[in-house]
Amino acid sequence: MAIAFSVNGKPVSVAVDDDTPLLWVLRDELKLTGTKFGCGIAACGACSVHIDGAIGRSCSIPVSELAGKAVTTIEGLKGTDGTLHKVQAAWIDAQVPQCGYCQSGQIMAAAALIEAVGTPTDAQIDEAMTNICRCGTYPRIRQAILAATGAAAAAPGAARTGEA
After folding, report:
1. DSSP β-ladder status, 54-57 and 70-72
2. 83: buried, middle or exposed (CB in 10 Å: 19+, 13-18, 0-12)?
3. Could you read off the pLDDT of 65-101 as tens digits, one per residue?
4. pLDDT, tens only, 107-131
5. SS3 of 11, please?
6. pTM of this prediction?
7. How far, in Å, CA of 106 to CA of 103, rounded?
């Protein structure tokens, strides 16, 4: 049976096993490869997407739970005119990534946090940003989140040195 939902504002219908994780539907069926596989147990956050505006770990969500819902991936975060989302722009300005593998999930988590609370406190950032970054760019991630909300100026050199 086909499961209908929307991805990045476009209706989709997929005929896969009901228990197929959303991650594999996105990557294999819909060819949206920005969402990454990290751990497969919803622990690392590399597979984070928005589902009806809330953050979700796509590796552990069966596609059967998505009927009628709206999914946004990293590919759909930017504006329809190609303008980067403010979090994506802040990520670039703060030079957050080193290897970059976890960054799509990090960006999706940060965007959901900002959408939910506006300008987050350090405690809210700590609580919401549970994604794992093997490169350890957490100070840059915090700086980019605050810069995206206008709460912190992206001081030249601060992103490169990790100072925030």
Report:
1. unpaired
2. exposed
3. 999 999 999 999 999 999 999 999 999 999 999 998 9
4. 999 999 999 999 999 999 999 999 9
5. strand
6. 0.89
7. 5
